[in-house]
Write a structure and sequence with these properties.
Elements lengths: L4 E7 L4 E8 L2 E13 L3 E11 L8 H15 L4 E7 L3 H9 L3 E6 L9 E7 L15 H5 L8 H10 L1
Parallel strand pairs: 4-5
Antiparallel strand pairs: 1-2, 2-3, 3-4, 5-7, 6-7
The protein binds coenzyme A (COA).
Family: Belongs to the acetyltransferase family. MAK3 subfamily.
Keywords: Acyltransferase, Signal, Transferase
GO cellular component, one term: NatC complex
Length: about 160
């Protein structure tokens, strides 16, 4: 599926980690994450950065990087994953939407350039709602859940956590 692409993981001290995708010895994409307690109540994963260099986009590399990160977070006991994305970043919003993230909040002028952000959230543990895990071994199975809409239980859970 990923001809010649090699994925590596780097662990930081405590709860930070990063996945990188390599092609011919060159890093072509990365995701940087951390995990920690949120308001002393929720053990939460956070995606701080995701980027794939232009010539390598559209091949599923970002999806694979994020999916691997989500799996680490799930296995580490996270109850949810969050991140922020510019409201104008259609590519990122589509990517995370496909993976089951919902738009939890709009953050007014969140970025220095004045653009608003969406806070995106993926709630655990409900493996039956996120059968794209484990991993992307079967992309067809993933696509079956592209149009997953949050259930009322997810909304209730979400509002309890806002
Ligand atoms: C966003 C980004 C990481 C996507 O990387 P990628 O490797 O091309 O993503 P994938 O190939 O895994 O894309 C998976 C899905 O995401 C969506 N997607 C990704 N890029 C898209 C774009 N430019 N427009 C619309 N949808 C897009 C599509 O649904 C795509 O599935 P498809 O190819 O079957 O249609 C990459 O464009 C990038 O590095 N952008 C600049 C940095 C950035 O915006 N990071 C996110 C910050 S929140």
């Amino acid at each position: 599926m990923f001809m010649g692409i090699f994925f590596a993981v780097i662990l930081f001290v405590l709860v930070g980690f990063q996945f990188q995708a390599f092609h011919k010895g060159k890093c072509v994409g990365t995701v940087v994450c951390k995990m920690g307690d949120h308001r002393n109540s929720t053990f939460r994963g956070y995606i701080a950065m995701l980027v794939v260099i232009k010539p390598y986009r559209g091949r599923g590399i970002a999806t694979e990087l994020v999916t691997r990160s989500i799996q680490v977070m799930m296995e580490s006991g996270c109850e949810e994953v969050t991140l922020e994305a510019e409201v104008t970043n259609k590519g990122a919003l589509a990517l995370y939407g496909r993976l089951g993230f919902i738009r939890a909040k709009r953050l007014f002028r969140y970025y220095l350039n004045g653009v608003d952000a969406f806070r995106l959230k993926l709630l655990f543990p409900q493996p039956e709602l996120h059968p794209f895990l484990p991993m992307m071994a079967d992309r067809d199975a993933t696509q079956m859940h592209d149009d997953h809409s949050p259930t009322s239980e997810e909304f209730s859970e979400l509002h309890r956590n806002l």
